[in-house]
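Folding Task

Wanted — backbone structure
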Amino acid sequence: MIDVPTYEVILTDAVDIQAKTAIGEGLAAYNVQHANVDDRRDLAVLLRDTRTGEILGGILGRTSLGLLFIDLVFIPEAMRRHGLGSRMLQMAEEEGRARGCVNAVLYTISFQAPEFYAKHGWHEFGRVECHPAGTSRVFMTKGLVG
């Protein structure tokens, strides 16, 4: 007799590590099965206080199947406009190239930094309206070769 699992479908806003692992590893295994490549890696460019060791901000992303994904970017307000964001973005892009990525992708919000990314060679490829009124998610990409 085959043991067929019983299940329930749950909606939650409290996602635990077990759920993240099951979904992430399940999708990764599926991708490896179909792409025959397992090259996914996390990527972080961190802004750290050298006196305390505290992480103040940075870039979190990942690379997979030739793409660099920039997921989260934060620099404290007092530290902006000193070239840190440019330097950190350049470091993330260079690491993406070193890992064999041919393109990069991110999204930002219209009140955040689309102009910053455009200044660094990123191009908008989509925009989706969200809240508050007049605000959009801005999807951007950049080629990393050539």
